[in-house]
Inverse folding.
């Protein structure tokens, strides 16, 4: 029915020139990334130079670069830890703010959980910088990498929370009631009924949390101490010195990691709707 | 039936505690730091960064005035005001241009078949989640003096010397559009997807032109999405930091860089905090307007 309708009124929906703008839009979004990826395979050692042939040397030199390697390990470790912690917190929060009776303050809780999304990153960054400085002045404590982990977990929570909440809201509550009717304990109901049903939401949220943490530059740059160089920070210090073809390769690798997680998150959340 | 109610009751009493850890984390490491910064804006700067905990409205006064070193006289100084005005102007220009490109794109997407739509959403979503720093570097790579655009134009003999694109206002707005375009497209698409196109058909039956159908029927129906898109573009452009840092080259500052500068080499935390407080004020205002408008539209 819906399909037949779409076909019958194709002409009604047409607006002249919109297809062209949409094509331009995609070109604008992708061309810069494609160019940087293409040039990462350019044999010319000067970054702006014309095409001199295909090479993977820049990838080899990027991967053999000790600093790049260390930064990548730190970034992946940090993103993984932030993902796990924020997803656990977000899952609990989503269970607490969906289904069943609404409780007093639930709206306030929802607003609080999503505030990190509306605060500009630069403000979050300097706030945490000031906060950690104040804490360090009060009690003699060296957070070290803990600072980065705390910051990343905090801004990852809403990204993990929203897909899980959406998933829970679309869930049939009678299944849990049925389990309870069949003498399942509350834990059994959660473990064998609720959890399997929420898994797509959790995985999708976790993937987003990973990307958001892995990609963060602004907040990390403001609060990172010496030696705490994540991948985006490392790339930034490199481009301040000079743009080299090796940086193209590093940027491309970084994009690839993001792409994998985005497509993963997208695929999981699409599967649930079918 | 009774069991259901019991379960609901039992869940109710425990449920709210599940939100506690996440709320605690966001309150402690999101809200408290924000309040810290707001209170810092009313204190005196310490020489080596940080603050001296004594009340002082100086930070806010220096947003508009400069204090004379010798006689303490205040003279009007528009330097920071100009940076604020530039930020608002960049934000507005970016939002408008994103809307002009984003709406037709979202419309085109929403009028495809469901499968094609999903593919388009994925296409728009990928840049949305991609690394902002890398995307900005990609733009830098293209527009700098030795970049692709100048290289091509030079080799075609269109120009004799590289055209300076990078480190201009144009470069910043270009970078901002490129960064935040998906934020405009996705909410408008979500709104347009729900539009009942039989209304457009009815419009045509009543001899409306294509433009009239778009302007009088489709756009009003998509308004909540358009407003959300505008807010989602405006807020991050307003706090933009990476884009002006890389593409503005320090000469064309926006509030974001200015704040970072005060917390960095300028070592004037109260002033930086005052900027941040004002920035947050603008963000809250934008959100408030959006909430009001979105509500008004859905009721009207």
């Amino acid at each position: 029915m819906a399909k037949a309708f779409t076909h019958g009124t194709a002409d009604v929906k047409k607006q002249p020139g919109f297809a062209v703008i949409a094509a331009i839009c995609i070109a604008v979004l992708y061309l810069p990334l494609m160019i940087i990826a293409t040039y990462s395979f350019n044999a010319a050692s000067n970054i702006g130079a014309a095409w001199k042939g295909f090479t993977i040397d820049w990838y080899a030199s990027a991967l053999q670069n000790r600093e790049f390697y260390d930064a990548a390990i730190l970034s992946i470790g940090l993103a993984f830890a932030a993902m796990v912690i924020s997803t656990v917190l977000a899952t609990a929060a989503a269970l607490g703010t969906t289904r069943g009776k609404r409780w007093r303050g639930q709206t306030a809780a929802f607003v609080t959980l999503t505030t990190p999304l509306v605060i500009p990153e630069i403000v979050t960054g300097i706030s945490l910088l000031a906060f950690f400085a104040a804490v360090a002045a009060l009690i003699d404590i060296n957070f070290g990498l803990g600072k980065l982990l705390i910051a990343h977990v905090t801004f990852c929570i809403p990204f993990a929370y929203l897909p899980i909440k959406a998933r829970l809201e679309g869930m049939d509550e009678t299944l849990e009631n049925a389990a309870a009717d069949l003498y399942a304990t509350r834990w059994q109901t959660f473990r064998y009924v609720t959890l399997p049903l929420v898994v797509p939401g959790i995985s999708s949220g976790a993937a987003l949390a990973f990307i958001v943490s892995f990609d963060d530059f602004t907040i990390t740059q403001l609060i990172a101490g010496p030696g705490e160089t994540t991948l985006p920070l490392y790339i930034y210090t490199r481009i301040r010195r000079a743009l080299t073809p090796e940086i193209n390769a590093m940027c491309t690798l970084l994009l690839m990691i993001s792409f994998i997680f985005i497509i993963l998150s997208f695929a999981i959340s699409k599967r649930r709707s079918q | 039936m009774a069991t259901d109610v019991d379960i609901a009751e039992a869940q109710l009493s425990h449920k709210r505690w599940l939100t506690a850890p996440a709320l605690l984390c966001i309150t402690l490491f999101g809200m408290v730091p924000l309040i810290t910064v707001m209170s810092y804006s009313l204190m005196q700067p310490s020489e080596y960064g940080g603050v001296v905990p004594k009340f002082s409205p100086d930070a806010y006064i220096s947003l508009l005035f400069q204090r004379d070193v010798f006689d303490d006289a205040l003279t009007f100084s528009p330097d920071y005001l100009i940076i604020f005005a530039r930020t608002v102007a960049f934000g507005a220009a970016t939002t408008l241009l994103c809307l002009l490109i984003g709406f037709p794109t979202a419309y085109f997407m929403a009028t495809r078949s469901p499968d094609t739509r999903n593919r388009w959403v994925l296409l728009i979503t990928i840049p949305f989640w991609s690394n902002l720093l890398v995307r900005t570097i990609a733009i830098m790579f293209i527009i700098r003096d030795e970049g692709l655009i100048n290289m091509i134009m030079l080799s075609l003999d269109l120009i004799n010397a590289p055209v300076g694109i990078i480190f201009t206002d144009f470069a910043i707005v270009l970078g901002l559009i490129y960064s935040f375009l998906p934020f405009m497209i996705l909410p408008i698409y979500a709104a347009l997807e729900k539009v009942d196109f039989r209304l457009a058909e009815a419009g045509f039956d009543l001899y409306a032109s294509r433009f009239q159908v778009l302007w009088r029927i489709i756009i009003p129906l998509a308004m909540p999405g358009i407003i959300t898109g505008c807010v989602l573009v405006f807020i991050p452009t307003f706090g933009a930091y990476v884009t002006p840092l890389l593409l503005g080259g320090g000469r064309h500052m926006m509030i974001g860089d200015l704040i970072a500068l005060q917390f960095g080499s300028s070592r004037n935390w109260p002033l930086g905090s005052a900027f941040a407080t004002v920035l947050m004020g603008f963000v809250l205002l934008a959100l408030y307007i959006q909430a009001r408008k979105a509500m008004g539209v859905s009721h009207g």
